[in-house]
Amino acid sequence: MRIHSSVIFAATVAALALTSLVSIGQANDDGQASAAQGDATTVQKTASISAADFSEPRVWAAAKNVVAVKHLYLSDQPDQATLDTAVENGVGVVINLRGPDELDWDEDNAVTKLGMTYYSVPIARHASSFDADTLAQISALVGKHRDTKILVYCASGNRVSGWFAVHLARDHGMSLEESIDLSKNVGLTKGSMKSRVRKFMATESGE
Fold first, then answer.
1. What is the tens place of the pLDDT at every residue in 138-147?
2. Is 2-7+51-205 assigned to CATH 3.30.465.10?
3. Are 97 and 139 contacting, i.e. CB atoms less than 8 angstroms apart?
């Protein structure tokens, strides 16, 4: 089942009203993915994240930079073979950060045929900052499915790393520079994306 950002927005707002911290928890291989519901899911306070939690980059077929961080797999663009590998590694949820205009195959169908739950929460490719609601939706999904392994991807991993840096700073209480430094492990290498993260966090803090 494909679930778009507009459908999950109500769940996001409710979840964020409960807490400002979203946990990245340890995955349970038997955890079952579920669709976003209108009722809020209680999320736990953040677990600590350090460099030791990041795996070395892995190659999953077309995806050349798949990095595991606890129950997350942060990645560049997958293909069918990548999705097959994701299932073999226990992934139950897939979050696509690319827009519909970027896709040239039916990823929704490919994901759901393998028994995984598919979410589409696009992050704009060309922008000076981020949309706060979009980032909040992604973080809320990560918290909602904290007992399930999740594949989060975009085209190159750049937008994924940008979201992750903000997630570490806003939801895990890290300093901005620490979150950016750690996110280099998942592909935050472009100066433009680092600037985008800094601008968004400055706006969030009212600077």
1. 999 999 999 9
2. no
3. no
